[in-house]
């Protein structure tokens, strides 16, 4: 379903970014990069309300002609960005939410790996496989 | 004092995440302190041994198991009582050698490795080697010299974790005079 999945650190550098190999990788990098501003905007605008509801899902950040960009930010300000093909109209908000939830759980497991140093790029095979499964589902 | 009072057959609850992460921190720190994996394995075994020689006292006090008459009985106690008490798992015992002096403990899920993924540069690290040391140390204190080693490990891509135990000999010399 997803065509690109990225994990961005608190300081806005990428911890992990993967996109489907069939398309131009750089295009997605741009898209994710652009979305960070929207994430910041949303977080500061909704900041208080989000904290109160403990809601981590930010919803649709912005649509482009071919894609939709969704965001999710953890309590430690790590951002997850997911780019979805907009031709895929069957994908509902709830499913996106559950995909982020899955991503978050997997990310938590990576953080708990004693051999992972926080702040490094994520190279975990388990995380990689999970992301792959999320990208294949749709394509 | 209060610790002594708490000591009974009931097991104390503890967060498994805290335990797993503590062990992980220990192993990674050792990896930083030592140059190669062999040294880390050795160090883990040594630490386990030191734990084992103490833990056996606690185990005997809490479990009320009596003297084992043969190695098979020992294996049963280790798997069904000791592992259950300290790690909350019950490994299965298989692959007895014909002579009855070797067996395997199969751990379906090893609580020590819950979140762990071995990085490529630590391919010869035996992550849970502490357990071997514990088994060796504990059994040594009850007059049994054994050898314990990992032959399969889920971290290395095997389906299960397997600890191979081999009975070497009875240690007779420090049996107090007058017993038996």
TrEMBL record, chain A:
This protein's GO CC annotations: endoplasmic reticulum; Golgi apparatus; perinuclear region of cytoplasm
Give the UniProt family note.
Belongs to the TRAPP small subunits family. Sedlin subfamily.
TM helices/strands, residue ranges? none
What is its subcellular localisation? Cytoplasm, Perinuclear region; Endoplasmic reticulum; Golgi apparatus
Q: Would the keyword Transport turn up in this protein's UniProt record?
A: yes
Q: Gene3D superfamilies of this UniProt entry?
A: 3.30.450.70
Which lineage? Eukaryota, Metazoa, Chordata, Craniata, Vertebrata
Q: What is the source species?
A: Orycteropus afer afer
Q: Tell me the protein's name.
A: Trafficking protein particle complex subunit 2-like protein
| UniProtKB keywords | Cytoplasm, Endoplasmic reticulum, ER-Golgi transport, Golgi apparatus, Transport
* SUPFAM superfamilies, per database record: SNARE-like
Q: Name one GO biological process term.
A: endoplasmic reticulum to Golgi vesicle-mediated transport
UniProtKB/TrEMBL annotation, chain B:
Q: Does the keyword Kinase apply?
A: no
Main localization of the protein described in the UniProt heading: endoplasmic reticulum
The keyword NAD belongs to this UniProt entry's keyword annotation: no
A cellular component annotation (GO) from this entry: cytosol
Known SUPFAM superfamilies for this protein? Ligand-binding domain in the NO signalling and Golgi transport (SSF111126)
- Subcellular location as annotated: Endoplasmic reticulum; Golgi apparatus, cis-Golgi network
The biological process GO terms on file are: endoplasmic reticulum to Golgi vesicle-mediated transport; intra-Golgi vesicle-mediated transport
Which UniProt keywords are listed?
Endoplasmic reticulum, ER-Golgi transport, Golgi apparatus, Lipoprotein, Palmitate, Transport
Family statement drawn from the similarity comment of this UniProt entry: Belongs to the TRAPP small subunits family. BET3 subfamily.
The record's function comment reads: May play a role in vesicular transport from endoplasmic reticulum to Golgi.
Question: Per its UniProt record, what PANTHER family does this chain match?
Answer: TRAFFICKING PROTEIN PARTICLE COMPLEX SUBUNIT 3
Assembly and partners are described as: Homodimer. Component of the multisubunit transport protein particle (TRAPP) complex, which includes at least TRAPPC2, TRAPPC2L, TRAPPC3, TRAPPC3L, TRAPPC4, TRAPPC5, TRAPPC8, TRAPPC9, TRAPPC10, TRAPPC11 and TRAPPC12. Heterodimer with TRAPPC6A. The heterodimer TRAPPC3-TRAPPC6A interacts with TRAPPC2L. Heterodimer with TRAPPC6b. The heterodimer TRAPPC6B-TRAPPC3 interacts with TRAPPC1 likely providing a core for TRAPP complex formation.
**Could you identify this protein by its name?**
Trafficking protein particle complex subunit
Q: Native species of this protein?
A: Equus caballus (Horse)
């Amino acid at each position: 379903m997803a065509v690109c999945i990225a994990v961005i650190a608190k300081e806005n550098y990428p911890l992990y970014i993967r996109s489907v190999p069939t398309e131009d990788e750089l295009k997605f990098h741009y898209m994710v990069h652009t979305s960070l501003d929207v994430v910041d905007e949303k977080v500061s605008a909704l900041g208080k309300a989000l904290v109160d509801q403990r809601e981590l899902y930010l919803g649709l950040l912005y649509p482009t002609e071919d894609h939709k960009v969704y965001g999710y930010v953890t309590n430690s300000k790590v951002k997850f960005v997911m780019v979805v093909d907009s031709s895929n109209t069957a994908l509902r908000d709830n499913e996106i939410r559950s995909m982020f939830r899955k991503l978050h759980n997997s990310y938590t497991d990576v953080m708990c790996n004693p051999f992972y140093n926080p702040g490094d790029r994520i190279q975990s095979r388990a995380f990689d496989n999970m992301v792959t499964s999320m990208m294949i589902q749709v394509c | 004092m209060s610790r002594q009072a708490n000591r009974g057959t009931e097991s104390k609850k503890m967060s498994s995440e805290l335990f797993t992460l503590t062990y992980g921190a220990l192993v990674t720190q050792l990896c930083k302190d030592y140059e190669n994996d062999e040294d880390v394995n050795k160090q883990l075994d040594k630490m386990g041994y030191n734990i084992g020689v103490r833990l056996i006292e606690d185990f005997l006090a809490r479990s009320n198991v009596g003297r084992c008459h043969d190695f098979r009985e020992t294996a049963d106690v280790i798997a069904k009582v000791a592992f259950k008490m300290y790690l909350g798992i019950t490994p299965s015992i298989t692959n007895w050698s014909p002579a009855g002096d070797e067996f395997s403990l199969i751990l379906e899920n090893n609580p020590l490795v819950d979140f762990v993924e071995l990085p490529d540069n630590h391919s010869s690290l035996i992550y849970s080697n502490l357990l071997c040391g514990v088994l060796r140390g504990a059994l040594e204190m009850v007059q049994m010299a054994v050898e314990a080693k990992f032959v399969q490990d889920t971290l290395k891509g095997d389906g299960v974790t397997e600890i191979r135990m081999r009975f070497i000999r009875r240690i007779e010399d420090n049996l107090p005079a007058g017993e038996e």
